[in-house]
Write a structure and sequence with these properties.
The protein has helices at about 20-30, 40-50, 55-65, 75-90, 95-105, 120-130, 160-170, 190-195, 205-215, and strands at about 5-10, 70-75, 110-120, 135-140, 145-150, 150, 180-185, 200-205, 220. It is of the alpha/beta class. The strands form 2 sheets. A 7-stranded mixed β-sheet has the order 6-4-3-1-7-8-9. Strands 2-5 form a two-stranded antiparallel sheet.
Length: about 220
């Protein structure tokens, strides 16, 4: 049996722009508007990451703690997560990506959204877009009453994303030798995932990925 998988990155591949900062601001406005005064601290943390003073994973944890809180009751948070997902799908999704998703579905591919963004809000977005599975960054308390500003395992990014894709495939009993994989991304950090695929597509790529795609012979697609 051949398993057909179409694996999509999310931010700036399926969407026009990143979703993480928008998520923090959306939830802050809805639950604790006073936290918006902490936005300059978020910028400082981003600078700390640029200068390699903190890891990307720690950056995300600290930003969430600042803008949403260390522990947030899931029941109070989820209505705002759902409203943010609806906002993303309504205003921040590329029509070309939707067309490709529809073609992959028609070709019999299982649709997988693999992203460094948090599963917490990726799953509602994926559900609205018709994806079959989500591979994403998890919170430590993913299935508990409170959402903690702490990542479980690793950030779903770069080689970590590929490890998580392989782990998901193993859990689904999908043997790589019996899988036909298409992969789409805009960013060179997804080179490991693209290398892993049978068919790799540089989707609205930034310059480093465009150069790599040209060298590798990966097709470039520019979705509006």
């Amino acid at each position: 049996m051949t398993h057909r998988l179409a694996i999509y990155d999310m931010d700036r591949t399926v969407t026009f722009s990143g979703t993480y900062t928008g998520f923090l601001i959306h939830v802050s406005k809805a639950m604790a508007p006073w936290r918006l005064v902490l936005l300059p601290c978020v910028i400082l943390l981003m600078l700390a990451y640029v200068f390699k003073l903190i890891s990307r994973q720690r950056l995300k944890e600290l930003n969430q703690a600042l803008m949403i809180g260390f522990n947030v009751e899931r029941a109070k948070l989820m209505p705002h997560v759902e409203s943010y997902a609806a906002k993303v799908v309504a205003n921040n999704v590329r029509a070309g990506a939707l067309e490709q998703i529809a073609r992959d579905r028609a070709d019999g591919y299982r649709l997988v959204l693999a992203t460094a963004s948090y599963r917490l809000y990726v799953e509602p977005i994926a559900r609205r877009l018709g994806f079959d599975a989500v591979i994403a960054t998890d919170h430590l308390s993913q299935d508990l009453r409170y959402v903690r500003a702490k990542i479980a395992g690793e950030n779903c990014y770069d080689t970590g994303k590929l490890r998580m894709i392989k782990a998901w495939m193993a859990a689904e009993a999908i043997d790589r030798e019996h899988a036909q994989i298409r992969a789409y991304s805009d960013h060179v950090s997804d080179a490991p995932m693209l290398e892993f695929a049978d068919m790799a597509f540089a989707s609205n790529p930034h310059k480093p990925l465009a150069r790599l795609a040209a060298a590798k012979g990966w097709p470039r697609v520019d979705w509006l």
